[in-house]
Amino acid sequence: MVFEYILKQNGLDPQKDMNIDQSIDFGSTAAAFSGGQGDFTVEFEPSATALEKEGAGYVVASCGVDSGYVPYTAYSAKKSFIEKNPEIIQGFVNAMQKGMDYVNSHTAEEIAKIIKPQFKENDLDTITTIVKRYKDQDTWKDNLVFEKDSFELLQDILDSAGELKARVDYSNLVVTDYAENAKK
Q1: 139 and 88: one domain?
Q2: Residue 138: which of 103, 102, 176 has the closest Cα?
Q3: Residue finishing a domain among 22, 43, 67
Q4: Nearest to 125 by CA among 105, 44, 133, 138
């Protein structure tokens, strides 16, 4: 959806101006591409870096950079849980903020060494390459506040893809108090 949104923002019609094969299982797109299917592919990491290391392709653009800040990860909880457990919510958000502070104050090499055990299938050089790419693209914000502009962009993308029946008011769905407290 993000890729198609970017295409539309740049005056291209994904249905008319190109042939996008959406029949391939997402986990198999890199293999299909390296096997000769298609001229371009949209990949998450570590697949993009693996294609480069194999000499099968090159990263030519970042959907994350070209789309604007899309909140790919958001944590949800029932209102009743939040109201009954504010200390758990604040503790969780504080821990996440601590992680954001770490990635924004350390080198790609330092981060890669710390997270390596979570990515056993990748070598340290690959993880470092990915982290450096994310840092160079300014992927990580300095705080966890789910901004209204990002919320609207997400709805624009969903709407553009025909996946949104109705827009939702930001103030009815997003709570930023805990993230605001954590960034202090």
Answers
A1: yes
A2: 103
A3: 67
A4: 133
Residue with tokens 């109201």: 83
Confidence (pTM): 0.85
State the DSSP string of 115-182.
HGGG-TTS-HHHHHHHHHHHHHTT-S-SS----HHHHHHHHHHHHHTT--SS---HHHH---HHHHHH
Say whether both 169 and 81 belong to one domain: yes
Work out how many domains the chain is built from and give that number: 2
Sign, Cα dihedral of 80, 82, 87, 89: positive
Which residues are within 8 A (CB) of 68 and not within 5 positions of it... i.e. 6 or more apart? 149, 150, 153
Measuring CA to CA, which residue among 54, 34, 41, 43 is closest to residue 126?
A: 54
Q: How does pLDDT run across 7-20, given as a tens digit for each residue?
A: 999 999 999 999 99
pLDDT tens for each residue of 89-121: 999 999 999 999 999 999 999 999 999 999 999
Helical axes 2-9 vs 148-160, angle rounded to 10°: 90
Same domain for 83 and 162, yes or no, is yes
Whether residues 125 and 141 share a domain: the answer is yes
User: Structure tokens of 135?
Assistant: 């840092």
| DSSP line for 64-126 | HHHH-----------HHHHHH-HHHHHHHHHHHHHHHHHHHHS-HHHHHHHHGGG-TTS-HHH
